[in-house]
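Checklist before submission:
- one chain only
- standard amino acids only
- sequence pasted in full

Submission:
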Amino acid sequence: MTIPIAQVIEESDLPNRASAMEDEDRALSRAKVATMTLVVASSTFNAITADAMVSAMPQMTREFGSGVNAAFMAQMILVTPSLSIIVAAPLAGLLVHRFGFKTLMIASLLLYALTGGFGFVAPGSASLIASRVVLGFASGLLSALALSRAADFDLRSGARLLGFANAMAATTAIASFVLGGWLAREFGWRTASLTYLWTLVLVPVVLMSSSMGERKVPLDGAAPAVRFPWLATLPTYLLVLGIFMVVYGSSIEGPFVLSRLGMSDPAQVGVAISASAFLCAVTAFGYGWIARLLDDRLQFVLVFLAFAASTVITSLAASSAVAIVGLSITGVGSGILSPLLVSRLIRKVPPAHVATATGLFGSATFVSVFLTPVAYKLIVDVGGVHVYTGLAAFMGIALLATICMVMTGRLAR
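Returned file contents:
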C-alpha cells in the first residue's frame, strides 16, 4: 500500500502547525492580558492629571499671592487640563479610526509624559498653564481609548474590569496625594509634576495589545451606518455634570477645609485626602460583586446615600478628624459611580461608537471638574453658606429624587 506524497507532506508538517498554533495562542493570551491592563489603567490618566498636585495647592497659593483670589488661581491651574480633556476626549472615536489604536495611544502617552513633567521646569504660571492644557488633551485621548477596550469583553467581565479600573484610579490617587505632598514638602511643589512620567511604562503594553488587532476602521467619507444614540445617553452625561462636583469636592475643596481646621502640612493633607481614594479603591475593587447583588437602580440609591452622608458630616465638622471622616465617605459612592455609568453607556451604544461614548463620558466629567471651583465660589458668594452646606442640600434633594424615581419605576434597571 502506497501513501500519497501530499499526505506524507501534510503529516510531516503537523509539528510545525502545532508550534505555530501554540505561538499564536501565546500571542493572543499576551494581547488579552495587555488589553485588560489598558482597561484597568484607563482611569489613572485623568486621576493623576487632576490629583498629582492637589496636596501642593497651599504652596501654589503662597507663590501666587494670598487671599481668596490666590486660592482660586491655584484651583484653576489644577483644573486647567479639564478644558482640553473636554475637547480631546470626544475626538478619540474619530481619531482612532483614522490613525489606529497603537499609533494614537503611543503618541498620546509620550505627549502626556512630556507635558506633565514640564511643570518641573516651567518658568512661570503662563507656561505652566499652557503645558497643562496640552497635558489634558493627551489625558483625554488616553482615557477614552483605553476605556473603550472594555467593550472587547463580555458584560460581566467588562463590569469587573471597569471596577478594577476605578480601583486603580483611586489607588493611583492615593499615591499621587501622598507622593505629591511629600515631594512638595521636601523639594517644593513643582516636583509633584514628576509623577506624570509613570505613563511611559505603558508603551510596551500598548505594543503587545496591538497584536490582538488594531481597532482601525478605514474612513471613506461616508456617514456611519448607525448614528450615535444621543437621546439614550444624554441623561447619563447630564448626571455626570452635576454629581461629579461632589466627587471632586474632597480633592478641590478638601485641602482648604482641613487647613481651616488646623491641618496645614501638605504631607498630612495628602494622607488625609487619600482616605477617600482608599475607600473608593476598596469599593470599586468589589464592584463586580456589587453589580451581581444590586441592579442599577439600587446602586444609584447607594451612591447618593453615601454622597449625602459625606456632605452633611463635612459641613458640620468642628475638627479635622470629623472632616476626614466626612470626606472619606465620598469614596464609597465614587467607587460605584464610574463603573456603573460607563457600563450603562457601553450597553446603550453600538460597538462602532464605544470610543465616542467613553470619550464623551470623560469630557462630561471634566466639564464638571472645570465648573466645580466656579460652582463652589457661587455657593459662598451668592448662597452665603459654606461650600459643603450647599452640597449637602443638593445631595439631599438628589437622594430623595432618586428614591422617588426607583419607587415609581421611572429609573431604568
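Reviewer check: The first helix runs from residue 5 to 12.
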